[in-house]
Amino acid sequence: MNFLNLEYFVMVAKEKEMRKAAQKLFITEQALGKQIRKLEKEIGADLFVRTRPLRLTEAGEIVYRDARQMLKLRDRMMRKVSETTKKKQIRVGIMEVGIPEVLTNLVVVFQLSHPHCEVELVPIHNDGTHDEADIYLSPEYFFSDCEHEVLMEDCVCVAVSDALIERTYGETADYMRREFERGDINSFSELPFGNGASVFWDSFGERLGFTPTIASGIVNGDVVKKMCLGGLCASLVPLNVTRIYGWEKEVNIYPIVTPGSSFSYSINYDKTPDSDCRDFIDGILKFFRK
Fold first, then answer.
1. pLDDT of 21-30, one tens digit each?
2. Which residue among 83, 107, 126 closes a domain?
3. Contacts of 16 (CB under 8 A, 6+ apart)
4. pLDDT of 85 above 80
5. Looking at beta carbons, which pairs linking 242-245 to residues 24 or more positions away fall under 8 Å?
6. What pTM did the predictor assign?
7. 245 and 158 housed in the same domain
8. Boundaries of domain holding 51
9. How large is the average pLDDT for residues 151-162?
10. Coil, strand or helix: which one is 122?
């Protein structure tokens, strides 16, 4: 048992849902579930009743109360220690979705080798807004005015439910499914899309030469996903995101091959990073390029 296990457990107890807790912790549901099961095994009791929403068992209530107290004591201890040895803070902006969970492990490794530094992760929202940071990990089109180096390649795809296909195309639904498999973005022109106001659309609509029918200008990823799964709209989404969050288990995923559909996740930073930021950047690049 460690503080990380307890932090994960407390977040799940607060959110009452694995998916929401995993997103806030920047890890996958699978990894989070593994950590919760590990904690339950160590304690020797189930901590949750697996219903929707999740409910704490009697043992879970005890662990939740004491875990929060332990984390508060840890935070108080760390604050007192930091007052005697003030650490340099490095702020790293990351996307709310789509960045591999390995980033958390890389942060831990960096801090072990740079004990005088503290890394704070700040979110980059789907609409492109973000707090100030020293380094940003995001699709390359978010920070065109920064220095950037490619971490991994990706492409856009269209996520659409069978219900929406049937409702939109009727008797020609099967024919349109075959058309969709060709990956031409223009074959989706009759479908309503749900993320029309996002930076993602602003970038790829122009790059792909495609003007979608907008069902909703909502940017929030959770809401758009629920609308998509419910058959209310289609969604333009990075292929990497669909794999991390299991979209392909619930809706049809059609990768787009139209020129301009591929892009890169990159590490973006100021042109003259200091030595500690440079070390962090080099550590990220080394991992992704090995």
1. 888 888 898 8
2. 83
3. 53, 54, 55
4. no
5. 242/157, 242/159, 244/28, 244/97, 244/98, 244/100, 245/19, 245/28, 245/29, 245/97
6. 0.56
7. yes
8. 1-83
9. 88
10. strand
